[in-house]
User: Fold these one by one.
Assistant:
Number 1:
Amino acid sequence: MLLEGKTAVVYGGSGAIGGAAARAFAREGARVFLVGRTAERLQRTVSEISDAGGRADFDLLDVLDQPAVERHARTVVDRASAIDIALTAVGFAHVQGPPFSDLSLEDFERPIMTYSRANFITAKAVAPHMARRRKGVILTLSTPGSRMAGSGFLGYGTTCGAIETFSRILAGELGGQGIRVVCLRPDAIPEALPISHAREVFEGFARRFDTTVEAMLEARATTGTLLGRFPRLDEVADYAAFVASDRAGAMTGAIANLTCGSLVD
């Protein structure tokens, strides 16, 4: 198994990508600690992992509370002796759809502040524990909005650009301590709509163009990706497990394109 004997912390473990990654990490042998705000979803994922023979625990935590996140990281080390992998897959409600002329400063700033703060705080909490052992992997999460030009996603597109830049520079900060940093960049994942905040976000676009979220995504996948579809949750989760493993040990400072070809590097 790719992650046998490793310990992974998944921030945002109650979300679609976080939960899928947690299951993939556990399937590959890692002990997983899920962190989130929704106990029912966290417990469901922990039960699924346990039923499949894996090891998982969950904790309720606000990832924007730096002292609490740092205390939690210490408790993980107390319980499992190490933190080998940290994935920050948190999601925060924000506004998409309105053009620049209708976008308020508050709606522009909200995703930039919350996502940037969350990624900084979680990396700050786990990095010292990884550095002491001179090994570890920090995974972040972005979207193609970081590279696309268009209307209706100025705040979140700026946010994703910030996450990718943060990830590249953080790799330079931590590489000398044996810590790798990789940013995962999937595109929209339709099967995540019932699980995550994505539907609420996409509805702003759907209303603007007088369509449904499903119809909007289907049209964009068909005409806007090379593979004619968006990535599946299991594809993103399996790649996260691979890149967190020693088999990807030479990879850091990278943005992993998991868009099915909506962007081409």
Number 2:
Amino acid sequence: MNTSTSSCSPRRWPLAAALGLVALGLALTACGPQSQTPGKPRIALIMKSLANEFFLTMENGARAHQKAHADEYDLLANGIKDELDVAKQVELVEQMVAQKVDAIVIAPADSKALIGVCKKAQDAGVVVVNIDNKFDDAVLAGQKIKLPFVGPDNRKGARRVGDYLAKQLKPGDKVAVIEGPPNAFNGQQRGLGFDDAMNAAGMKIVSSQSGYWETDKANQVAAAIITENPDLKAFLCANDSMALGAVAALRAAGKLDQVKVVGYDNISAVQTLLKEGKILATADQHADQIAVFGIEYALQLLKTKTAPADRETPVDLITAESLAGK
């Protein structure tokens, strides 16, 4: 959704005046967010579901940055309702190109399907910066397009979470991975990071299934895994929303104190559970800053016209100890 809003109140005009305004209107932009300060770049931020606290935090961080730099750029923030609504994201990119924004900073719902429309945006002269979920390198190469990725190394971050979990287990313990969508590069990388840690520690991965980023779906997946593996020792969840679903399934099964859970994203909803020991660890990739990093890079590219390159952003391990006193 485009969260920038404006209103034009209808008025009654004499016929001659109305005809004159119609002619004048052909040369003017309709009232709304298109009315901008001349020469000031407009940056469109296109995210995934704003129902996910991670992306709401991302949006709030971007808005705070724009407010502090209001003389430097204008911001149009958009999001989809469903994490997997790729078609809506394509439509949002097309809308932003039609509105002639200067740059698009996008956290794509699909690592491959959004590349085509982003290429069209780039061909139209729009600077495109990829954040959060990296575009597929093979598809980028096939379409002969370069889009810079500004974001964390998800595999590295998940490996740190998995290594921390492994210290609480013993070799041979059974664990399960609840993955992100198979079409999301960051989900794939987090799954690989978890696998790296578990394999290095000698754990037995008994199941690896997608919860599609959603709490309810992860809850269903976790409940089935618990039933099939009564001696399960841990869930490794590729985001915190799915970790919440695993916790709910364990609580329903009466095993909340027997099975450890780790997540990824450090949303506020898991921090109490971290302090209580219901979730062991998560990763903080600084949701409030990821879009800001992308926006700042887009502004730099608009000024310098230099060739874009990837930029890695920080990701930190979060545990009850790191939250102590907060």
Number 3:
Amino acid sequence: MAKAKRYLNFIGGKWVEPATGKYTENRNPADNDDLIGEFPASGGEDVDKAVQSAKKAFNDWRLVPAPKRGELVKRVGDILVRRKEEISQVMTREMGKIIKETRGDTQEGIDTAYYSAGEGRRLFGQTVPAELPNKFAMSVRQPVGVCGMITPWNFPIAIPTWKLFPAILCGNTCVIKPATLTPASVALLMEVFQEAGLPDGVVNLVCGSGGEVGNAMVGHPDINRISFTGSVEIGRKLAEKCGANMKRLSLELGGKNAEIIMDDADLELAVEGALWGAFGTTGQRCTATSRLIVHEKVHHEVLAMMVERAKNLKVGNGLDERVEVGPMVCEDQRRTVLEYIRIGKEEDKAELVTGRGTLTEGDYAKGYFLKPTIFDRVQPGMRIAQEEIFGPVLAVITIKSLEEAIEVLNDTEYGLSSSIYTRDVNRAFQAIRDIEAGITYINGPTIGAEVQLPFGGVKNTGNGHREAGTVVYDFYTEWKSVYVDFSGRLQKAQIDTAE
């Protein structure tokens, strides 16, 4: 057998071995015989080297005009366009989701590059009237220094680019720790930065576990920002650690998203949206449709359509263009979802109507496959209706009115994405007003966010910051207020004006 490719950390513009000398394997969740490569199991020493490299690079990078930084980010986008299929193929092999979705993942990185490039000429401040004569007042954005990014496995290119592109566009330098399950995609992204001519040290990659690398990043005194996407449990721990050191932290955490189908909805469209929202990415999205809230007048029709179509979804290796649902990302994740299926079967009144566990025979024997699963007669307080499952499991809840539907949708600790299907414009606007979520779709599924709008949620979904759009630039900059007094004399604000 050919020896597996050994990947390295990327620090100071060079590929370097981890100080630990340790590596871990990265295998295809659809076919465990497919070894993508060996990746560093780094530690605190590696993090410190990366941070010092980023700190050194910051001195020059912050002085590069923002439009020039934008031009470089655009070059990164251009290279991603050229290497899109190569990167997407690797992403499917290491993450499992179908090739059409990984192409979309890479495209989101391209979209983010071009959007961020434009912001190089739009890092707007404000000019405002001064209250005293011969005085000028304005505000400007300043870079913050070294930023640390800790990214998840379900969007191995999109989410790193959400974090890296705005940060470097603002004049910061970065250290990124990819998920241990999907480091190859981010390693390819480093190659893209290198090819684009990004100065050494502006972006650094350190592979390894959250316990070793992630904690070292969070505790490092020279990292000024941490951006984390992951679980609520880990997010709370990071908030405590960052809070103790007055370190700014952006959290994008879990979701328990719901699609409402009203009795006047286009049912064909609503069912297509629910299938895509629930079983796209094998349910492994923070915006996945985990609950389907259906009006009682159309419940039986919707359920019959959902069950029939879910049974016919083709499960398999995501590299096969015909496959619609890939594997779970790893065996631990599959076990977690199977446990929730067991819980659902034991919860009072809930009925498992399709999907009965694993697929393990033939082509499925070497992967972590699950059948798309639907529960009916779910009550709002049940665990499968409250807890994030992160797998292809949909809970169907029946309601009698729009008000009840919104009440049920809001009855979770999360508030990321939401959806309602209705032909009634008044109902649509009532839902927009009353749903407690960072994202609301009208006649669309709960997945499919675009890079030009803020991404994030309320309640335990995060801590108030947002990815994407223009607001992310507030996280990666500090505001400075500037006053220019050209009166030639001492003027006392709030004192002279009162006379």
